[in-house]
Amino acid sequence: MGHPKEILILRHAEKPADTSNENLSTKGYQRAAALAYYLPETFGAIDHIFAAGVGHKSHSKRPIETITPLAERLGKKIHDSYLKYQYPEMIAHIFGDDTYTNSTIAIAWQHTDIEDIANAFGAVKVPTTKWPGDCFDLVWKLTLNADNSYALEQIPQLLMYGDSDDIIVDSTTKTFCEELLSIDPRDLCGMNPAIPAGNFSNIAMTCIFQVPKAFVPEGLTEQFIFVGAGFLLNEQAIIDNQIAAVLNVAYDENDPEDLQIPFSDPTIDKRAALPFQLAENEKYYLNQLDKVGLVDGNENDINTLVAAVLEAEQLLNAPTPTQQKADGMVNFYAQGNLVIHCHDGGSRSVTVTALYLYYKYYATTDISFQDVYKSIICLRWNHSVNNHPTQGICENAYEVINTYEALFPEPIRKK
User: Fold this and answer.
1) Global pTM?
2) Whole-Å CA distances, 353 to 180, 183, 220
């Protein structure tokens, strides 16, 4: 068994404000250069260097860029064959190779996995508080114990202007997202069940909001937003709830069954007919169907959540068929209600809906995102089968909130 005597885990250096840029920022490159001297001078000889590789669902070049100056200065190879989600395989490789016995290893990785990496190495007293999103100046040193566990010491780098001597400590109180994992619905929602909006059947989906009349698009007198479970959606549910648009936010990227929701049959669905005759090259659909592929936990790119919210905005604000024809369209879509769903109708649809409602209708009021999210959660708890939001996507939602002014254009973001 290859047990290193010391393991240095550090987050990649600073990233640019542009979230589509997978490289370091200018300050990040400066930190990377400084680390090339700081790490060996502080911790002694470094024998092996690892960094999260670039590949499928592991697009960031920052871990490699962070550790490259050190590798070049020491003449060491960077082991980057393991992608960010393959850290268990990396650790198994290290433990299974005597090459690493009694060595010192430096590892540069994404901050969302550092806690799990430390735990997988067998570190004791690892903080459960998530690594802060704005922390780039900390080293976790794991020192081998006699029982092959590792003692964890957190060491502030204090390399650059603005660096902090803070370490990560567990909070005495849980965040709203953390409480969702274990909170009793009666404690969160009270003893009086929340009442869905409108007068709709709630077997397949829950009507969680009626759009204020001032925001209902021209051509409609009322409009509603639903959240639902994809496996329960069917033709009758779509008709009964007057659904004109379906936004799927399931985690299954290539699951065709999750999109097998038939378009409504106009001989059964008696919504208003088109006010004009269709030409031979024109078609009329009673439903729009779109998908944004989110994944489990907190591994969603922030822009994917943003895309889901913007897609909800577009679907809800479809113009009248008459306006669509005037705009030169040949495929026409009905106006009506929107359902946002994932496979089980839980966290993803709830989160996207809460984000949309908060930005669109509550951003300039005293109503907090927690209250909007709580309201939707309570409706799902009382009126559906699978409804518990996951902590990871809740945390993603907060990340969107903290940066929404730079991400959301009008009309969702208000002045």
Assistant:
1) 0.60
2) 17, 21, 21
